[in-house]
Amino acid sequence: MSCRVPGSGPYRAIARGGPQDEYGPEGTRVVHVGSLPVGGPEPVVIAGPCAVESREQTVEIAHAVRAAGADMLRGGAFKPRTSPHDFQGLGREGLEILAEAREQTGLPIVTEVLDVRDVALVAEYADMLQIGARNMQHFPLLTEAGRTGLPILLKRHWAATLDEWLGAAEYIAVEGNLDIVLCERGIRSFTQGTYNRSTLDVNIVPAVKRLTFLPVLVDPSHATGDDELVPSAALAGCAAGAHGLIIEVIAEDTDPTTPLCDGYQSIRPSVLERIIDDVRPGGASWHALRPSGSGG
Ligand code: PEP
Ligand code: MN
Q1: Is the minimum distance from the CB of 229 to ligand 1 under 6 angstroms?
Q2: pLDDT tens digits for 231-277?
Q3: Are 177 and 147 in contact (CB under 8 A)?
Q4: Can you list the residues of the chain whose pLDDT is less than 50?
Q5: Ligand number, closest to the Cα atom of 261
Q6: 1 CA from centroid of ligand 2 (Å)
Q7: Structural domains in the chain plus CATH codes
Q8: Is 197 touching ligand 1 by the criterion CB < 6 Å?
Q9: Ligand nearest to the CA of 184
């Protein structure tokens, strides 16, 4: 482990025992997104479409996820696609749609910023900036995003070590921005494509919590790539101590082949509601997931 000497490790600004640690050996920094606390004792649930495809689609899903109990809306206006021929997102129009969905539902929004040149634009609309897996080590983007002062959702690259991930978070922290929420979204493994898209690295959740006071979420959608596997991965993430979930959702009656991005891994609002009921205090899994005294 690289960060054994407080104050001198490669990610000293976010390290337990480091100069900015006010949180004790097990405490978590609570990151506020608007008025929503992330990192408190109750898991937060962020939900919404993979991509903003239209006003109607996004607003409908926003209302549905709010009714299911979600705390925040997700949706990409700028999409990082493997092929340049695939849908790249609606850009500014997508951001305007997200702002309208926020206006109608009251849910804060998190959306990805792909490009240093778009940081100011995305920051005008978003309550939280997402740095996607592919850009986890895009250092100038981390710096610019950090400088906005907005909370940042930093996804782990599918082949990043824990040290590389925390080093990336440190780039944001050294800009004076400690409002960072980490997100495990599945890693590449030998099972790739046999029954899943990625492998949810459940054990990195407690490993992260041992090294940093920053909150950590789990994304069961990209970690599985299969809507039927999402509920189990979501519960596993919470059981491992994640501070919440980010989940892709389609409307109840949408054919999963029709979204332009990630339809097969998107769950319905009715399934989201069951997951939320399970992971919230008093839910079926709550006591099993949070043994007494486990803290934040
Ligand atoms: C997403 O959240 O839509 C996304 C592209 O995720 P990731 O960066 O984890 O692939
Ligand atoms: Mn997606």
Answers
A1: no
A2: 999 999 999 999 999 999 999 999 999 999 999 999 999 999 999 99
A3: yes
A4: 1-3, 293-296
A5: 2
A6: 32
A7: 27-289 (3.20.20.70)
A8: no
A9: 1
Exposure string for 107-118, b = 16+ CB within 10 A, e = fewer: bbbbbbbbeeeb
Give the residue whose CA is nearest to atom 1 of ligand 1: 50
Neighbours of 235 (CB within 10 A): 20
- CB of 263 sitting under 6 A from ligand 1: no
CA–CA distance, 213 with 16 (Å, rounded to integer): 6
Which residues are paired to 73 by β-bridges?
47, 109
How many of the other CB atoms lie within 10 Å of CB of 164? 14
* 102 Cβ neighbours under 8 A, 6+ residues apart: 62, 73, 108, 109, 127
Give 75-101 pLDDT, tens digit per residue.
999 999 999 999 999 999 999 999 999
- The pLDDT score that the predictor gives to residue 3 is 46
E-strand ranges in 98-140 read 109-112, 128-131
Nearest in space to 101 (alpha carbons), one of 51, 63, 47: 63
Q: Whose atoms come closest to the Cα of 133: which ligand? A: 1
Q: Is residue 36 within a helix (H) or strand (E), and if so which, with residue range?
A: strand 36-38
State in Å: Cα 257 to ligand 1 middle.
19
CA dist 245 and 216 (Å) reads 9
Q: Are 89 and 77 in contact (CB under 8 A)?
A: yes
155 Cβ below 6 A of ligand 1:
yes
- Which residue's alpha carbon is at the smallest distance from atom 6 of ligand 1? 132
Q: Is the CB of 133 under 6 A from ligand 1?
A: yes
CA distance 168 to 144: 13
Please identify which residue in the block is written with the tokens 């997931």: 289
Q: What is the pLDDT at residue 287?
A: 58
Does 151 contact ligand 1 (Cβ within 6 A)? no
Question: Which ligand 1 atom sits closest to the C-alpha of 50?
Answer: 3
| H/E stretch holding 209 | helix 204-211
